[in-house]
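Backbone geometry:

***
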Amino acid sequence: MKRNKLYIGAALLLLSIASCKPTLDEYTPSAGSVNFSKYVAIGNSLTAGYADGGLYLEGQQVAYPNLIAEQLKQVSGGEFKSPFFSEDQANGSGYITLTALVNGQPVTAQVTDKLAYRSASPKLLTKYTDPINNLGVPGMRMDMAFAAGVGSQAGNMYFERLLPDADAMKTYFAYSTTQNHTFFSFALGNNDALGWATNGGVEDGPTSTLTSTALFTTLLGNYVTALTAGGQKGVVATIPDVTATPYFTTVTRTALLAAVNATNPPTPVTNIYIATKSGSRAATDQDYFVLPFSSTGLLGKPNGAQIPYGLHPQNPVEDKYVLDVSETATVVQRINEYNAAIKAAAASKGLALADVHKFLNDVKDGVRINGLAVSAKYITGNAFSLDGIHLTPIGNALMANIFITAINSKYGSKIPQVDVAKYRGVKLPDTVPASN
C-alpha cells in the first residue's frame, strides 16, 4: 500500500495531536523589554536551514530563525528576509533523499536536478546579495569568522554567495555585526569541534581542526561585545554534544558484527578492529563509527594480502571512520569548555541563553513533546535529517522553541511557541508499505 509523503514515526502521532486540544500556552503576546523590529540570526548550517546533506529551499524555509521570526511578528517583530533559492533552483546545493528501506536499512540517492550552481569548478552558487536577516552560513566556524578570504571564491561557497564581488575579503564577523540590528540570535562555534569529530578525530585541513578554548573564548568575547555595542539584546546558544547525534550513534559495533555474520562466514566474527592513535585494537561499544562508514562497502573487503578490512588487526578500520573513546573524551571536554565560555559571555552582557546542549542530550534517549515522540534515532527519531547531524522541520520547530523559551524567560516577553505538530520529520519514500 502506497502512502504519499508519509513521515516516519509521525503520521499516527500527528493525527492524535490534531484531535486534541492544543497544549501551547495561551496568553496575550508582548515584546517585554525587547525591540524586535530588526532581528538577525548569526550562525552556521543549523541557522541556515541546511538538512539532508545540503542547503535547499524547503530546508531554508523552515530554518529555526525563520520560525522564530514568524512568532516575533506577534510582538511587533519586523520583516525577516532569508537568501532563499529560487523555485527553479530550489534544490540548491543538492541533498540526499530516502528512496527505499531494504530489510530495514535505508537506501538514499543524491538529488541532482534544479541545482543552484553558477560554476562547477570551483563550485559556486548563484549569488544572493540583497539585504537579509538570516545570516547563517553552512560550515562557518568561530575561528574562520575572523579570517579574510573565507568569502572569496577560494573559500566557503555559501558565504561567497552572499557577498558582492567587491566584498570578497570581508570577514564574516564584519559582515554579521554591521547589520543595524535591534535583536540577535547567536549560534556559532559548533563546527569548531564538529569538523574534527566527524573526521574521526583526524586533522585534515582547517575545517577539521579543534579550535583552542583560549582562542574560542577571545573571539566569542569580541563577537558579543560588537553585537551589543549599541545596547542591543539577544540570545546566545550553547553548542550541542556532537556524540548525541545519529551521525555517531547509528552505526554500532553490534550492528556491524550482525551484518558481517549475516553473510555466514566460515567462522563467526566477534571483533571489529579499528586504527587508533595508539595502534590497532578491537572496537568497543564506547567507540563511535561515523554514519558514512555504513555505505563505504569496506568492511570485510580484503586487501592485497587478502586480509579482510576491519576484521583483522593488520587491516583495521581507518581512524577517520571512528571516533574512539579517547577522541570522544577530547571532543566532549572541548565542547564543555566552549559552553562554559558561552554561558559566561551571555551572563557578562545580560543576554538570554538557549541551552541547546542540554536539550539535545535530553532528546538523545527520547522525549515526548506535545504528544510527539522525539529522539536521536536515525530516521525514526523525528528530530534529525538524513545526514544525521542537521535537523528536520520538526527539529527546527523544537529548536525555535528553545530560543523562544529562553527569550521569554530573560526579557519578560510573551512570544508564542511554535506549534511543532505542523512540521514533518523524515520523508518516507512513496513505496514504503504502511505499518500495522
About this structure: Residues 213 and 338 are 6 Å apart (CA to CA).
